[in-house]
Each structure stands twice: as structure tokens, then as C-alpha cells.
Amino acid sequence: MSKRAVLVVDLQCEYFAGGKLPLNNIEKAATKAAGVIKKARSNGDLLVHIHHESRSPDAPVFTPGTGGVNIHESVKPQGEEPVILKNYPNAFRETPLKDMLDAKGIEEVVVIGAMSHMCIEATSRAAADFGYQVTVLEDACATMDLEFNGINVPAAQVHAAAMAALAFAYATVQTTNDYQ
């Protein structure tokens, strides 16, 4: 049995066209993610689908009970693949994720999904802190333009900064083409 898990983080309808928080290049990232998912299934890797829901029923995004919280059709779970609901950027916080990985003897996690600067970073850092070997497939992740202190930061720069920070001390960051 494989000791690797692929964590598919927050590839939800909210982030696609028609959602309340569409991301730059989300379709491209989802296509790359679908390829990683297909490979994980054929390799016998554990696939864990993670989706975010706000805790408040009147939240402006990821509102419980709305279509935005659904996992996007392009990366839908199949069969008995586990699905974990989270309420925080870190997919380990107050979820059964760590217990599930440990019960299956997982040593390595591959992280894909959205958003690069939030849930991908938080989940990857937590995984590294828990002692897992972490790989982030950067072209299977997406993010958005941000603004800070009156400065607009384009999504490409937000993504690059997030990946650079992870690569500095928390994860191996590579493309899906380089992924084994």
C-alpha cells in the first residue's frame, strides 16, 4: 500500500466562474489537479478531498447549503474516497485529517487546490509541522489578486510568493510535469 496521500483542497464551485470568489487560472489548475487525481487513483495513493464551509449560515462566501460549497465537477470524489469538511484554512484544524493519515501509515502528502496563499499554505505548513514529507504541485493550485496597504498584488505574484515561502522551508514545490 502506498504511503502517499494526495490532498485535494477546496476545488469548489465558489472559486469558478459563477461563484462568489472566482480565482485566476482556476480552470487550468483544476485540469492539472484532475490529472494528479487520475494518477493517484492508478497508483493506489490515498485521495482525500477537502472542502471549506463557513461556520456562519449567513456568510458571504462558502455559505452552508449553497452550491458554492460543492466540490467542482472536474475533481469530484469517486467511490469511497474520503471527503473532509473544514471550517478553517488549515485542513488539519478541528478535522479528522491527521488521524486518518496516521491510521493509514501515510508519510508523504501532496497538496493541490485553492487558494495558494491561504488554505494551500496553511495545510502544507501544518503537514510539515506534523512530520509529513510535503510536496505542493504549484500548477495545480490557484489564487487571486490581493490588495495590501493600497498596493494591488496580481495573482501571479501572490502565487509566486506563497510557493517561494513554502519552498524555503516547508515543502518541495514542483509542477505536475515533474511529479512522479
From TrEMBL:
Keywords: Hydrolase. GO terms for molecular function: hydrolase activity. Residues 5-177 form the Isochorismatase-like domain. InterPro entries: Isochorismatase-like_dom, Isochorismatase-like_hydrls, Isochorismatase-like_sf. This is Nicotinamidase-related amidase. The lineage of its organism: Bacteria, Pseudomonadati, Pseudomonadota, Gammaproteobacteria, Pseudomonadales.
